[in-house]
Amino acid sequence: MATTTTLGPAAAGVPGTIYLLHFDKPFRHATHYLGWADDLHDRLAKHGTSAGANLLWHVRRAGITWQCARTWTGDRFRERRLKSQGGKARMCPICRPALAAKLAAGTDRRVKR
């Protein structure tokens, strides 16, 4: 039996910001975190505390810092699609300088919607 992820009526179609955090050094298997927020600055302030994502709390406890590498406009469903694609390093302009150049020039066409 297949399971589906429900995001709840509050998240259905609500525009916000999808963001990619790049860890300055790996934490176990993780090098990135992808999330969604209706208020990006508020959400980033909560990360690394008990009010933020559990992974980021552990990353902060390990003394690892992160930076916001990329943002997209979209809803929680788009965030889920990006997460399902996997390969966050392929989406990261810090890991892929050629991607940074494409983004600066406005020619990256891989993630549209």
What is the β-strand count? 3
Shape: globular
Estimated helix fraction? 25-40%
Which regions contain 5 or more consecutive residues with pLDDT less than 50? Answer: none
Q: Which strand order does the major sheet show? A: 2-1-3
Q: State the domain count.
A: 1
Proportion of β residues?
Answer: 25-35%
What is the arithmetic mean of pLDDT? 86
Give the class from helix and strand content and strand pairing.
alpha+beta
Q: Please tell me how large the radius of gyration is.
A: 15 Å
Termini gap: 30 Å
Q: How do the helices and strands follow one another from N- to C-terminus?
A: EEHHEHHH
The largest sheet is: 3 strands, antiparallel
Separate helix tally: 5
